[in-house]
Predict the structure.
Amino acid sequence: MKRVLIITYYWPPAGGPGVQRVLNFVRQLPEFGWEPLVLTVENPSAPARDESLFARIPKDCRVFRTKTREPFSFYKILTGKKRGEVLPKNIALGGKAPSFREKCSQWIRANAFIPDARRGWKPYMVRSGMRIIAEEKPQLIFSTSPPHSLQLGAAVLAKRSGLPWVADLRDPWTEAYWEQQLPKTRRSRKRNRALERRVLNAATHISTVGRGIADLIGGKTDKPVSVIYSGWRIANSSPMDTEDFEILHLGNLSKLQSCDGLLDALAMLETEIRTHIRLVFIGTVDPDQRRAIDARRELKVSYYDQMPYETMINHARRAAMLFLPPLDSSYAGGLISAKIFDYLALRRPVIAFSPEQSDISQILAETESGKAFGTAQVREAAGYIRDVYLRRDKDGVLLSGNETGLKKYATDSNAKALSGLFNALAGQFRRPSQ
């Protein structure tokens, strides 16, 4: 069996969508002739922690953990946070106006640590990675980011070993929505763009999560770019009893997203329908977003803290519809939120607010899993909610999706595509450079 060195910062016990993508591939690559060797950090500074994910790591999967050096302990001291307190996903995107100390820490993070504050992992990664390559003889390197700083270490490993290298970008680099919020100086942004170009031009091949981001990356390099979807895996989608018609949102809801389209659509529904609807949010909700939701006093709303992944998916079986909000970003049309694949697995109709001809609208149309609406299509969105409400069966749900369309976006289909990419590159050994 051929071996691939997989470099990922986010790995159990870290939670979140980045973990799901790489964990699903690690589980399925052996079926297609590739043994994954996972290189990660001992204690990632992650916005979510999910101990239950340890159970999903294959028993025979070898995981190599290294130390790292990061400034987050300094950040906590500077901002007065407790040692064990979880940091927000993106420090610049906190829910309330930042204090003076937080503004200082944001400026330092934005300009002293380029491309990001995880860059301190690089020397540890390179040292351990070269040892793994010498002892385990992998045929290929696969590095998945964010954090994009890990790609700098992967570039060194590829150059020194001569191994072909696939750089996997789950999000854009310089255009990432959190990058636009950071108080970077012009010089820092120039430096960040230079690092991005260096990685894109050094990689043997680039993979990403959807065609929109692939087009964005492809405009910056001559290197080939492939779309490998994160994919959905089979989940128990049988309905659970609930008194209300629940419209569910999974995961964090940031201040760069908006529920206005959904809230306005619900306001257009007849009272006899609206009184049976409940909005449900599982995960962190930005305070401003919550105030806007709670201001609609005619709606029933429930909030739940972040849950272990499997518990969250099981709880989602109560839902009648699934909600995907828009993101205020320059690449919103090419953004594929990882939660869309959990939604596909749950087989409930999805109501999304997304630009016309976006990747999300294409996926929903191909799989017959829901509909996407522009921000001005509130009346049409209300009609769709009404239609699903009236057509639900005796169990209170309307199952969605067609098998042919869904197959393209399944994890096993994309793990197979990834292994095919590995097979094509495995022989492209280059003379090592010290």
Summary: The radius of gyration is 22 Å.
